[in-house]
Write the structure tokens for this entry.
Amino acid sequence: MQIQPFSVNDGEGIRTDIFMAGCPLRCRWCSNPEGFRQKELVGWYKRKCIGCGACAAVCPQGIGIDMDAAVSDGKPGIVTGHDACIACGACVHACPEEARTHMVSLMDADAVIREVMKHRLFYSYSGGGVTFSGGEATSQPEFLDYVSRELYDSGISIDLESCGYFDFSIVRPALERMDLIFMDLKHMDPEVHRKYTGVSNERILENIALLGSLRHPDGNGSPELVIRIPVIGGVNDTEENIAASAAFVHDALPDAKMELLPYHTFGKIKYEAIGMPFGQDGFYTPGKEEMKKLRDIAAAQGPEIVDYR
């Protein structure tokens, strides 16, 4: 999805974030909807468009300036420009204002490694490194295994952000190379979890508990663990859920830390760019006082509360 250098919110020091497409969850508050599928994707930022028509002039699918408009694709029925797009990138190269952009692209693993290595000096001086994120990095286990192994062998610090829904045995070698693992815990009730994410939380809870068994390949130490709760107003912000979540984490992983992050709508523009309904009107951002109260409730159950923002 993106390689983002100079990040300071996803681990220690200055980091390069590798956002990898593909996610088994469909969280209704997701801020990266372009990462739901492992499919090349071109987006259209309408607010940047000047209507010059350069994109339409080169499109092999006959898509006009407005990607939200209906287009006949030669098959029964009518689709929008987003549906008809084959993500060839011709419009991206033609657009003078970057209103058309690659939101998901195919990229060779070695090319990714070369790109992140350009910033190696910043990692050394700041204690930073590379963070795998998404989408969901574990949804591409072969890629994650290869790139994490190459970076680990090169002495680069590597972290991981994950929704926690994966086959632990398959991903374990990559997990054990990590210096820091952030894993989400969105709700303790399996049915509520399914309602808002599309899957039960059972596998996620099992994987959180298994994190305590990880050991670095050289036998020296294990990954630092931070369990994150994205606090969504109207979904999981009750005192009971936060207390139960923190109690579970402390019982399963006594040394793990926790981070509570307030819901935000920064991803709204991405929904517009890919022609997807936003549909998050029922959620709200907890205020500072509410977040402090919830962090205090979590801390009372035992875990150390941290903040990487």
Q: What stands out?
A: DSSP finds twelve helices and twelve strands in the chain. The first strand starts at residue 2 and ends at 7. The chain has a mean pLDDT of 95. The chain has two domains: 2-37+105-305, 41-103.
